[in-house]
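G., before I forget:
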Amino acid sequence: MSERLYKLIAKILGVNVSDINDESSPETIESWDSFNSLVIVDELESEFEVSFSLEEIIDSPNVSAIKKHLKNHGVSLDD
Amino acid sequence: MIFTSIDFIVFFVFILASITVIKHRKFQHLILLGGSYYFFYFSSNYLIVLLIFSTVLDYYLAKMIYNSKDISKKKILLSISLIGNLGLLGFFKYTDFAILQFNILGNYLDLATSIPYYNLVLPLGISFYTFQTLSYTIDVYRGSLEPSKRFSEFALFVAFFPQLVAGPILRAKQFLPQLREKIQEYNAGGNIRQIVFQNVNIKFGITLMAFGFIKKMFFADNIAPLVDNIFFNPIGAESFTIILGALAFAVQVYGDFSGYTDIAIGAALILGFKIPANFNKPYFATSPTAFWNKWHISLSLWIRDYLYLPLVFKNRKSSTRIFLSLMIAFMLIGFWHGDGWNFLIFGILQGIFVGVHTVIRKNVKFLRNHTFFDTKFGKVLSIFITQYLIFFSFLAFRIPDMNHLFYSMQKYILIDFQVTETISIIQSHKISIFLMVLFIIIHFISFRKGNLVEIFAKLNYKYWTLFLTGSILAILLLFDGNPTDFIYFKF
C-alpha cells in the first residue's frame, strides 16, 4: 500500500518512485508546490475514497504525515 | 538596533555571556525574553507596548479558545484576535496612506478641507509578529496546537530577538517544542540542563552570520548606489538601463533580505534554536509558483495555510476559484509589504503570474509533466522566463512613483536597443557592476555545488579563521562607517 501511495505521488510530481519516501516533502522535491499539493489531495481522495479536512491538508508537511492522515481514515498502508 | 551595527554585536555577546553564566534553564529563557524586549525597546521605545499588547491578547485568547466547548464562542474569540492584531497593523501601517487617498479624492472633487496626517511611526516588526501571533491563535482554534501554559514561553516565541524584526515568521509548532524540551527535564527532576552552546552549532551559526554580513554589507549595500542612481528619476532612461536596474535591485534585495535571514538564523542557532530557512535559491526557480516556494518562504507558507487554502479548499476543482484565491492571496502579500499602490501592483503581477501558471497546469495536462521541461534547455529557458517576469514585478516593488514605474515597465518590455546611457552608467558604477557579477557567479556556484555555508562551516579551524578574517576585511574595504537599515525593516 505504501508503494501504491509512493507511485501516485511520484506520478503527480513527475519524479521516479525511488525518489519518494516517508521524509519526502515540498522542501526536498522541487515540483511539490501548493498546486501539486492540492492535486495530490484530489488524487488520494479518489484513490483511497477518503475526504480530507482543511486541517489535514494544511498539516501534511511530508509523506509520513499523509500516511498518518490516511490511517486515521481507516486506510491500511502496511506492506 | 541594526544587525550590522556594533550595538548589536555587543548586545549579542552580552546575551551569550549572560546565558553562559546563568546555568538555570528557566532563568536563561527569561534572559532571552528580557534581552528580546530590550532589543525591541532600543529601536522602538514606547511602541514596545504594542508588542506586549499582541502577546497578552493572544496568550489569553488562545487559552479561552482552547477551553471553550462552544464553537460560536471560539469563533468570536478568534475574531477578537484577528481584529485586534490586524486592526493594530492596519492602523499603524495604512492610516496615513488612507488619509492621503481621501485627500487626493477630496482635491479631485474640489472639497475645501483635507484630513491632517497622523504621521504614525511604523512599529518595528509589526508586520511579522502580528502574523506570528495570529498563526498561534488560528492553530489553537483549529485544534492542531495546545496553547502555551506559561506566559514567558509564549512571550519568548513572539519576541525572540533574532527573528523579531523581519522574520522568518515562526510557527508555534516549530518553536515551542524546542523551548519545552529544554525545560522538561528540569521539571521532571532531572539534572539542571543548561542551554548548551554546542561547537557544531556555534561554528555553523557564526559561518551563517558571516555569510549574512557579507551578503548585506559587502554586496547589497554597495550595489544600492547603482540602483538608487537608476531609479531616482528613470524618466528618459534607456531600456537596458532599466533592465540593468531591475537586475541590480534583484541582487540587492536578495542580498539584503537573505543576508538578514542568515544573521537571524545563525544567531538563533548559536543560542540553540533551529529556525527554518526563508530562501532556497529563488533566482533558479523554473516557474512563478516555484519562485514562491523559494522566496520569503515563511510568508508564502503563512498565506497558503491561513488564506489561500481556506479560500480554495471547498471548491478547488474550479479554475476560476483557484485563480481568484491566488489573486486575493498575492494582493495581500503585495499590500503587506507597504502602504503604496506600487506594492499592490507588485502583488497583482505576482498573482497573475502564479495564477495563470497554475490554471494552465491544471487544464493543459500534457504540459504538466512534459519531458521538455526536464531537459537542460527546457530548465534554462524556464528559469530565464520566470526571472524575466519576477524582475519585471520587482520594478513595482522598488519604484513608488507611478509615472516612474509605468515608464520603467514600458521600457523593460519594449526594448529600445539604445546603449549609450547604459554604458556610461556601467562605467561610473564599476564597483557595483563588479559586485553584481561576482554575486551572480557565486550564487551559480552555490546552485551547482550545494550549500556553500555547509562547505565553509566544515573547514578546519585554520581555513575557517582565514575565511572569517577575509570576510571582515572585504566588508571593511568598502564600508563607509554608516550601517544601513535592512530593506525589510521598513515592513
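DSSP finds four helices and no strands in chain A. Chain A has one domain: 2-72.

More on Monday.
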